Amino acid sequence: MSTQENFSGQVALKASRSQLTPLLALFGLILGIFAALITPREEEPQIDVTMANVFIPFAGASAIDVASLVTTPMEQVLAEIGDVEHIFSISRPGMSVITVQFKVGIPRTEALVRLYNAVHSNNDWRPANLGIGPVLVKPKGIDDVPVVALTLWTDDPARGALELTQIAHSLEIELKRIPGTRNIDTIGAVQPTVRVLLSPEKLSAHGIAIAELRSALQANNVVSHAGVLVNHDQAIPVQAGLFFSRPEDLRNLVVGLHNGRPVYLSAVATIEFGAPENNQYVSYARSTDKLIAPAVTVEISKKPGENAVNIAEKIIQRIELLKGVLIPEGVNISVTRNYGETANAKANKLIQKLVFASLSVIVLVALTMGIREAIVVGAAVVLTLAITLFASWAYGFTLNRVSLFALIFSIGILVDDAIVIVENIHRHVNLGRKKLLDVIPLAVSEVGGPTILATFTVIAALLPMAFVSGLMGPYMSPIPINASMGMFISLVVAFTFTPWLTYKLLSERQISHDNSHNDPSQSDSNPEKLTHATQAFFGQLMRPFLGDNKRRNRYGLIAGLVVLIVLSCSLSFFKLVILKMLPFDNKSEFKIVVDLPEGTSLEHTNAVLAALSHYLLSVDEVTDLQVYAGTASPIGFNGLVRQYYLRQASNLGDIQVNLLDKHDRDRTSHDIARAVRPHLVDIAQRFHAVIKVVEPPPGPPVFSPLVAEIYGPDYAGQINVARKLRVQFANTIDLVDVDDTIDESINAYREANMASNFNSNSAPRYIVRVDRERAAHLGLGQEQVTDALTVALGGENIAYLHTGHAKYPIPIQLNFAVADKAKIEDLLQIEVRNQSGVLIPLASFTYTELSSWQQTIYHKDLLPVVYVTGDVAGDVDSPLYGMVDLVNQLDDSVQQYFIQQPDTPFAYSVKWDGEWQITYETFRDMGTAYAVGLLLIYILVVSQFKSYLVPLVIMAPIPLTLIGIMPGHALLGAQFTATSMIGMIALAGILVRNSILLVDFINQSLASGMALEEAIVNSASVRAKPIVLTALAAMLGAFFILDDPIFNGLAVSLIFGILVSTVLTLLIIPLLYYALLRRKGLPLEDTISLD
To answer: Is the pLDDT of residue 145 over 70?
Structure first.
């Protein structure tokens, strides 16, 4: 071999002599400890996706008017904004809700500036007197997801939601004082209200109209700072009037005159102070006593960049201090969400795995090379990880499951450089012919070039994955970025710190070797000669394929490998390997989302939720539930994307289910969710409800796992297509949680054939029409009708109490008692005063008619759309296969789109979305990254070997990974997921490293005059040890992530891919290179032109 020192050898020599080397290493270690202490800990990576809801009221307008006059013009304005991913909208009677979703990675502030500019600079599109209200923009992002949820509940019958709300509001003030907290809200809060319950009969008897009473209340709650009175050189401020401060202030308020006598408010209304009519219920239930108790939930989010673990710990500590102070006896508080605790537990577990993975590699080196060599490799790994942790923090990553898994996954490849360097020094030291300080630069020079090239090939394979688009890109970006930074750092450490520590630890061994080799008979005359057994093994293995007369054997070997690759790929076709975006994780929670038909009362919704809750409490693994009727539970990232926070209606409900810790139960959360679904569906069907079992997604969330978007020229026609498609969804095996965006009340109304005999399921809508001619004769108008009915049915906050100590204002609400507004006929007896001062009942100039609920109109990216959604729960637990079954069922009359929505809505079509879309985009981008990585590897190898054919030989083992990857997934029953693909991409760089070592060694052997066939056998014999060691190190690192549901695919790909391809590489690469040299027809000793 050449003894000339190259750049890497010179660096190693200087580093081994320098006194700065240990100081720099110590500084790097300190940086790593610093990063580990200050890096924020979170369970999942923070994905910078900004969403904003634009609310535009249009009082009294139909859904069609809202869509055409409000939604469509505003969508066109918002479509002008750059970097917008999607624009969704919902047009319902009286309200337009438009959601703008920006592309991932657009900074929140920049996105919102663009949005506000677009909205407010185009206010002139609204005609002044059309009745369109002011635009309200409410942004949402990942930092709006609560990290802690505290549920206050009581089993004391004397206490209720009102008392719990008051306690919760006092807690809000205290918790907001904790640095780093952001939004603090109370779900299920019941605000104290002064309810002025008007009596229609008493109003009529005293000759008082609702409008007059309203004016009297408002006029008597006006206060003004009138000015300053100057008297005797003193300025005295004068205040005119006093605000209402107590409910008693209202009782003797004069609201009018009747027969010359004052009419007091208490004479025509009942005044109550307390909780208003319920528009939401929140309950808490434990599995221990099955009691469902009233509750409220305080949710706390954190500021961007804050450590979730620290914030959560401070919140829990503050709550403990407030027990008995702000939280009285008889009121319980339960921590129903603590993402800080779960993040800390996950981080600690992964750090523990990181330590074990590092120790396992060290033990491996100790068993194969010696304890001192193991210490060197171990120190190099620790230093590399420390500096990589600091680089990760500096880049902006947090300590989360993905970034830590990236480090664990990287252990096997970070240690490669150190192992190759130490193994080659170890080999030369064992020959014992030179001093250690002379051996180190020689040994490093020998493998330095291939090591540099191999390191950059691994980086070339991994780094393009950092540019994957969509939500999956930033979610998985810590893997390619951290691994690439780690690889580069490991290369620097291998050329600097590793030689220095090797010199310090192996110098004594060098002396003993010098003494033992004084006997010339014990000297080895051939430095590259290994044990006879190793050379004999590879000689017997390769001889059948070496020689011109063995060409047919080589072709047969290659053909056999091609057949194995094809058979391996076919495993997915026969569903022996299931393709899926990501498998479900084993969480300690899931959610039940309940939808009932439009018009369902809040009490009925609560009764349905109670029935579902009683069953859930009987499940062994369930610890507690939080039940939300008429409102949404605290959102997660999944709920943020699906906009669950907009679920505010009497017919909607959620059940948050908390489970035992995964270490205390046998079944996974996914298994539990699958098991309870059929029972919940049976219960829901008895109440005509639709339920969805929503599990925390293992990665970026989607609107639903399986989504069909129906487009077309007519919304009624789209609804008909959606109905038919929903039937096919329901009839497809293993498809569950089937739903659509067709209002259920519409279905019931049409089934009634527009009949006037509505049943309870029809959910009719009353329209009170004004006989305008009759009203004109009476001196009345439609405005008086709408005002009176609004007060009677919905209530109206006309003023507020000023108590001086309430955090939230206490409204004075005009309303009717429940019994007085149960029938439309009774409401039409309300009297209004005409211009002549006469009280006229509404029934005198109005009439009612029954109509259907108006269908909510949905848009996506400016096109009207109807959604049909579903999920998959069965043996083939992947929505992709359910989608394929449905695709084959649709007839040709409906066009199908898979990649993008149709350009125009002139024909009925179905666009498939959901998990399919994100799977397609992720695998498309990963495939592109794979191709780019291979191209970069090819260019790097061409630049090194000055040949276009040699890189093809070096990259030949890459397809061989499939022979291990796909059967490995089938053997372990693992799904082939996005993380499996990441492992496959990483293998390309790892295998090319091994190939480079083999080819470079063959070239060095040939350059020293060795015969070709001997050089081929010798390359496998000499390089087998470092190649096998690095392979075992990578497999050991992957072994520690094998039990994680999400990264199981990555581990399987690495373990089985490395196992099979490493064995085949030691055989195939030398043989292919041999065939290339023979095909060139060069003399066996002349290969310099190929280097």
So the answer is: yes
274: its two tokens: 């307390």
Pairwise CA distance, residues 854 & 772, whole Å: 24
Q: Where are the alpha helices (DSSP H) in 276-370?
A: 308-322, 339-368
Residue 683: what pLDDT?
Answer: 96
Which sign does the torsion angle of CA 143, 145, 150, 153 carry?
A: positive
Query: What are the pLDDT digits (tens) for 896-937?
Result: 999 999 988 899 999 999 999 998 998 999 999 999 999 999
CB atoms inside a 10 Å sphere around CB 121? 9
Q: How far apart are CA 765 and CA 598, in angstroms?
A: 10
65-76 confidence digits (pLDDT tens): 999 999 999 999
DSSP 1038-1084: HHTTTT-TTTHHHHHHHHHHHHHHHHHHHHHHHHHHHHHHHHHT--T
**SS3 state of residue 594:** strand
Average pLDDT rounded to a whole number, residues 967-976: 94
Cβ–Cβ under 8 Å, residues 917 and 617: no
Question: What is the rounded CA–CA span in Å between residue 1057 and residue 1035?
Answer: 9
Contacts of 31 (CB under 8 A, 6+ apart): 386, 387, 390
Distance between CA 1073 and CA 950 in Å, rounded? 7
Query: Quick one: which of 730, 713, 710, 733 has its CA closest to 721?
Result: 710
Q: Give dist(CA 454, CA 990) in Å, integer.
A: 8
pLDDT of residue 157: 86
Q: Which CATH superfamily is domain 1-38+369-515 in?
A: Multidrug efflux transporter AcrB transmembrane domain (1.20.1640.10)
The structure tokens listed for 334 are 């339960």
Token pair of 906 as six digits: 């002139």
Domain 50-140: which CATH number of 3.40.50.410, 3.30.70.1430, 2.60.40.10, 3.20.20.140: 3.30.70.1430
Task: Please list, residue by residue across 682-721, b when 16 or more beta carbons sit within 10 angstroms of its beta carbon and e when fewer do.
Answer: ebbeebebbbbbbbbbbbbbbbbbbbbbbbbeebeebbbb
Query: Could you report the per-residue pLDDT of 845-859, keeping only the tens digit for each?
Result: 999 888 877 889 999
Q: How far is 1029 from 482, CA to CA, in rounded Å?
A: 23
Residue 1072 CB burial class (10 angstroms; 0-12, 13-18, ≥19): buried
- Tell me what percent of the residues of the chain surpass a pLDDT of 90: 49
Q: Which residues contact 1039 (CB under 8 A, 6 or more apart)?
A: 357, 360, 1051, 1055
How does 10-45 read in b/e, with b if 16+ C-beta sit within 10 Å?
ebbbbbbeeeebeeebeebbebbeebbeebbbbbbb
Matching residue, tokens 């789209």? 718
pLDDT of 526 strictly over 50: no
Prediction pTM value: 0.86
In sequence order, the β-bridge partners of residue 656 are 591, 626
**What's residue 870's pLDDT?**
94
Contact 800, 812 (CB under 8 A): yes
| Class of the CATH-defined domain 193-224+240-274+765-851 | alpha beta
Domain ranges within the chain, ordered by starting residue:
1-38+369-515, 50-140, 193-224+240-274+765-851, 533-576+946-1091
Cα 88 to Cα 621: distance, rounded to the nearest angstrom: 38
* Candidates 1.20.140.10, 1.10.1740.10, 1.20.1640.10, 1.10.10.60; CATH matching 533-576+946-1091: 1.20.1640.10
Per the listing, tokens 């063995």 go with 550
Token pair listed for 682:
């049976």
Mean pLDDT along residues 194-198 = 93
Mean pLDDT computed over 390-401: 90
Could you give the 3-state DSSP secondary structure of residue 529? coil
Do 50-140 and 533-576+946-1091 fold alike per CATH?
no
Distances 526 to 428, 938, 1008 between C-alpha atoms, Å: 11, 34, 12
